[in-house]
Amino acid sequence: MAIGLYSLLEAAILCLNAVCILHEERFLAKVGWGVDQHKGFGEDPGVKSQLLNLIRSIRTVMRIPLIGVNIATMVLKLLFG
Amino acid sequence: MDVPSEYRAAPTKPSQKRRPKGHKGGQPAPQMAPPQQPYNDFSMHNQQQQNYMQNFGQPDMFFSGYNTGNPGGAPGPEQQFAQQYLNNPMANMAMQYGSSLAGQGKDIVDKNIEKVMSSSKVKYYFAVDTAYVGKKLGLLFFPFTHSDWSIRYNQDEPIAPRYEINAPDLYIPSMAFVTYLLVAGMVLGIQDRFTPEQLGTQASSALGWLIIEMLAFSLSLYVMNLKSGIKYLDIIAYCGYKFVGMTVSLLAGAMSSNTVYYCVLLWFCLALVFFLMRTLRVQIVPQSEVDDGHTIGTKRSLYFILSVSLVQPLLMWWLSSSIMIYRRI
């Protein structure tokens, strides 16, 4: 499977999009991954809270840039296929 | 930034790629004109560089690249043509502006590169010498007898690999990567399925897998909350060591049969797994403060090291088998 750099970029955009659409209240809290359920200050955070932290930070940081990147990708795909 | 001296003049050497006579306006090549002095000194350039110069439109006093096959030939009528360029003030200004712009661009690029990857840290990874490279390669080939895997260094700066054999370096991985691409091209050529695009495809494929692996590495380090002294450049180094094994196994397989390739690959997989496990066990220190944190930390770091080490053979096999094994149509 030849992974070109362009397909890497596409995969990265898709994965970031996937992480960003996990809504905090509607979905994660129902599953039991809500952030307020785990916000402890233990010394050893544990894998799950690290993961949730990661999801939350990706959401916070990448929401706005992803809008721009998605628009650009859509335009490029429309033009160049 | 001035035009580097080798591009300043290009005497014509008889070569295959010479332009046909009378290419530029059908001017006949002047014979036996008095040779120009600086022209004779640059005797190592061929037509290609003349073409380069011409394509970039750099007017030059000694722009006799128009002539063909006239060693040390004089400009003659072409000099007046070039003189026109030089006397044109607009061309002068454009040239100066272009060169100053290039200088500014270089400064900007340097500054930005400095932000992303500080070159003062990177240079430590390339501070190697032949003895280190030899010993490290030997270690990659046969790590089973090496006993002391610890790295003695001060916490703040990475140690130059010259002084410490266990330190990771970036020289071997980058060289191995390039060699792997060349050997892959050669093997593809032996199998009659080489095109120049393949080189680029293989390069970006290997680079893509390398980036994926590095991201997975960094992500798992963060998620498992393993505090360690591993820097990002170390990660590149550790992920790049497998190219050595892949190159050697490709070479061995190319020279003899597929079975030899598999055996050598297996050997290098085992060696790399062992090497990485011993190296990472020293680098990733489990949290040993709290009692139950100790056990959890050790287990997690063990899982991490195991998964990293076991992914390497997978990637080695995946990347090189697509080159080595193919279905004869």
Automatic annotation (TrEMBL), chain A:
Primary location: membrane
Classification via InterPro entries: Yos1 (IPR013880)
Keywords: Membrane, Protein transport, Signal, Transmembrane, Transmembrane helix, Transport
Subcellular location: Membrane
GO term, biological process aspect, one: protein transport
Mitochondrion listed as a keyword: no
Cited Pfam families: Yos1
A GO cellular component annotation in the UniProt record: Golgi membrane
Entry superkingdom: Eukaryota
Signal peptide: 1-18
PANTHER family: IMMEDIATE EARLY RESPONSE 3-INTERACTING PROTEIN 1
Known role: Regulator of endoplasmic reticulum secretion that acts as a key determinant of brain size. Required for secretion of extracellular matrix proteins. Required for correct brain development by depositing sufficient extracellular matrix proteins for tissue integrity and the proliferation of neural progenitors. Acts as a regulator of the unfolded protein response (UPR).
Similarity comment: Belongs to the YOS1 family.
Protein name: Immediate early response 3-interacting protein 1
Automatic annotation (TrEMBL), chain B:
Lineage: Eukaryota, Metazoa, Spiralia, Lophotrochozoa, Mollusca
Membrane-topology descriptor: Multi-pass membrane protein
Region annotated Disordered, chain positions: 1-43
Domain of life the protein comes from: Eukaryota
Described purpose of this protein according to its UniProt entry: Has a role in transport between endoplasmic reticulum and Golgi.
Membrane-spanning ranges: 170-191, 203-223, 235-253, 259-280, 301-319
Protein name (record): Protein YIF1
Recorded GO CC terms: COPII-coated ER to Golgi transport vesicle; endoplasmic reticulum membrane; endoplasmic reticulum-Golgi intermediate compartment; Golgi membrane
Biased composition (Basic residues): 15-24
